[in-house]
Amino acid sequence: MPEYLVRFAQAHESFRKVELQALADIAGVTLQIITYEEDSPYCIVDLPSDTAARKVIARSILAQGIYELWGQGSTYTALHDSVHTISASKWSQYETASFRFTVEGYRGGNSTDEQRDIIDSFAYMAFKGPPRMRDPDVAFRVFEDYDLDVKEPKYLYFGRLIAESCRNEAKRRFDLKKRLYISTTSMDAELTLLTANIAHVAPGKLFYDPFMGTGGFPIACAHFGAVVFGSDIDGRTIRGTGGSARRGQTGKYDVVGNFKQYDLESSYLGAFVSDLTNTPLRILPPDKDSTKGYLDGIVCDPPYGIREGLKVLGSRQELLETERQSHQDQYKIPGYIPPKKPYSFTALLDDILAFAVATLVEDGRISLWMPTANDEDIELIIPSHPCLELSSVCVQAFNKWSRRLLTYRRRRASEVPEGTLEAVKKEYEKGTRASDLNDFRRKYFQGFRELESMKKEFVRMKMEPKTNGDVASEADVKT
C-alpha cells in the first residue's frame, strides 16, 4: 500500500493515534501506522489509496492534513535520492500542472532565501506548469523535523498534498466564545468534536448524552451527521436562564437555540429532565443474548462532584407514606423541585456502564470523561463491565490532576463468556456528605491543598535569610 504522511497539530498527543484509527474505522478503511512519536507532529501510515486518505482525514480534529510521501531522509542528499527512487515515475503526471512548493520546519526553520534554495534543489523534477501559491493543481511540501536548539534538521520528508482536514474550520465555527448559550462547565468545543470522532459518530446514527448541560456533546455529534438527544438532572440548564451577557445578545437562549445557531435543529430530537439512576428510557435486562439495544453511541462528561457533591433523585432519608404521597401529588405542578440525595462517584461510573450495556447496539460505543490525579495515592480505578471492551484511554493532563477519555465498545453476544453476567455485589463509599461518597473530591480538597501548602512552605524556607544559629547548625552537620 502507498505510504502517506499525516501532519498532526501538536496538541492532545495521547488522542491523536486513537482519533486517526477511529476515523479509519468509520470510513471502512484499512490503516496501518508505520512510524509515530508523541513529540513529533509527523506520522507515516499505510493506506490503500488517495481516496481512502481523503476519507480518513476529512473530519479529523487533531490532524492538519495528509500527504502522499514522495521521499524521506536524514539529510537533503538522502532525501533527494529517496525522491528519485520513490516518485520519479509520477513526475510526468504533473508536468504541465500549476504547482506550489513550500518548506515547513518543526522546532526550527530557515530564512526566506534558504527556503528558496531548498525549493530550487527540486528543479530536476522539471515541472513546466506555472507556480501558483493560491489554489494550485498540485501542492508539495518539504517537512523539516528539528531537535530543540539544533540548527540542522534531524529528519526530512517530502510529500504531495492529498487533503486538508476540517480542524481549523470546525474549531472556528464551534468556538465557545461565539456560542450563544454556555455554562461554566461547558466542554471545550475541540474536545467535544474529538470525542465524537473517537466514539464513531456517523450520519444516521443515534447518540445520547445523559449529562448534556448546555448541549456541547450533542452539538458535536450532530455536526458529524448523527441524530441526537440528551437529558440532565437540572432542567434549568436545558431550558436556559436568559442567555449569556455577551455584547449584542438579547432575549432568552437555551439548548434549542444552540442547535438553531449552527443550523442543526433537524438533528436534535430534544431533551428531558432525569438522572441516570431514574431514567425513563427503556432498560433491557442483563442478558448476553440480548441484541435489542437502540443507541448507536453515548458521549458524556459525568459530573465530578467537586464544586458540589453528586446527587441523584431521591430522599436522603426514608419517606413516610404521607410524604411520599405528597411528592406523587405535586410532581406535575409547574415549579416542582424533586428531592435529591448524595451519591457515590464510583457507583455512578458503574451505573453508566450498566446503562450502556442495556441500551447500546452491538459494536456501539460509549465515550465518557473521568477524572484522575497526578498522584499514585489519588488514582481512580477504570471501571469495567464484562459486556464492554475498553478500546482506548486518552489523557488530558492539568497541573495537579488529569482527566481521561474512556471509550468502550459494546461486545457482541458471542464475545461474552458464559456466567460473566451474574450479579456481583459491590461495596461503594458510604456516608451522608459529598466527600464521603467521592474519594476524588475528598483528595482534591485535602491532598492537593496539603501538597500546595508544602510547596509554599518549601519556597518560603528557601527565600528566608538564615540566622547565625542556622549557619552554625549547618556547619555542625557538615563536620
From TrEMBL:
GO biological process: methylation; tRNA processing
Domain Ribosomal RNA large subunit methyltransferase K/L-like methyltransferase residue range list: 179-309
Keyword set includes Transcription regulation: no
Any one cellular-component term (Gene Ontology): cytoplasm
UniProt keyword annotation of Cytoplasm present: yes
EC number(s) per entry: 2.1.1.214
GO MF: tRNA (guanine(10)-N2)-methyltransferase activity; tRNA binding
Primary location: cytoplasm
Keyword field: Cytoplasm, Methyltransferase, RNA-binding, S-adenosyl-L-methionine, Transferase, tRNA processing, tRNA-binding
Residues annotated as domain tRNA (guanine(10)-N(2))-methyltransferase TRMT11 N-terminal: 3-167
One Pfam family, short name: UPF0020
Domain of life: Eukaryota
Subcellular location: Cytoplasm
PROSITE patterns the record matches: N6_MTASE, SAM_MT_TRM11
UniProt enzyme class: transferase
Similarity comment: Belongs to the class I-like SAM-binding methyltransferase superfamily. TRM11 methyltransferase family.
Record's protein name: tRNA (guanine(10)-N(2))-methyltransferase
Higher taxonomy: Eukaryota, Fungi, Dikarya, Ascomycota, Pezizomycotina
